Amino acid sequence: MKAAVVNSFDAPPSFQDFREPEAGEGDTVVKVEAAALSPIVKGLASGRHYASGATAGFVPGVDGVGIDANGQRVYFLFPKAPFGSMAEKSLAATRMTVPVPAALASDRAAAIVTGALASWVAFTRRAKLQKDEKVLIVGATGSSGSMAIQTARYFGASKIVAVGRNKEKLDRLDADVSIALGNEADAALRGQFDEGIDVVLDFVWGDAAARVLRAATQNRGSRIGEPRLRYVQLGTMAGDEIALRGDMLRSSGLELMGSGIGSVAVADLIAGAGELLAAAPEAGFDTNFKSVRLQAIAEAWNGDTDTRYVLMPGL
Description:
Layout: E1 2-5, E2 14-17, E3 27-36, H1 39-46, E4 63-67, E5 73-77, E6 89-93, E7 97-99, H2 106-126, E8 134-138, H3 143-154, E9 159-164, H4 167-171, E10 177-180, H5 185-195, E11 199-202, H6 206-217, E12 228-233, H7 246-250, E13 253-258, H8 266-283, E14 290-293, H9 297-301, E15 309-312
Parallel strand pairs: 8-9, 8-11, 9-10, 11-12, 12-13, 14-15
Antiparallel strand pairs: 1-2, 3-4, 3-6, 3-15, 4-5, 5-7
Helix pairs in contact: 2-3, 2-8, 5-6
């Protein structure tokens, strides 16, 4: 079969022949229709992600949409190595598949889940967002951040604050308040926390997270107790480390947690994907993406970082 293959952690995948998968007990071979290229896919394929393997020689892709051995169209998550989703065929555990609604095209379904699953799981399994709570999203202009606005709205958030570096992109989002991380951002952030924020989703970490956390916790310490603030860390595109003072935790209602592989059970991730897909048609979830042939893997790999590419072997 034809596939994108990671032959080196230092180079984009190559379009080439690769052996076909064979299903074992509890597995299904999936004829792939669509597989989204996401930051986690690039991180794993470069050896930089914490879940990366030790050697190259595999097909990248952590999820996709395709036809299973029973002829059903399914979304599948975490295909079995070395058969990632960016190939004509992949291999998945049957328990790691969920149906795709007929109303969603395969490429759109792949793009929606890849963009929105992080926030869906963070809201439902980690932060446990309640109706009418207020949400602040750090890194809101990225694909996952913009989808987090849609999922927060779906779950009934009463206010959504979008935080990012690009003011023009922020202004295009469906948020109630937008804060660009310029020189005057600290006061604006502090004002939002003074008014009340219940949940923060942070897709970037780094300096942006440090500024948001300072705004949330400085000069707190009320004797009647500070309100609870659930801060969920989802990605590190702006940096892996920040400085964190101990009194930021002691003097505020801050609760730091992560959401991802390890902090969330795999069973919850695939269950969340099924919930998300089932809700998507009626909720109107959507995201910008560009469908390209699998042969174009190198171009997509090095392409515009603002574009969500979806690889389609059948194009």
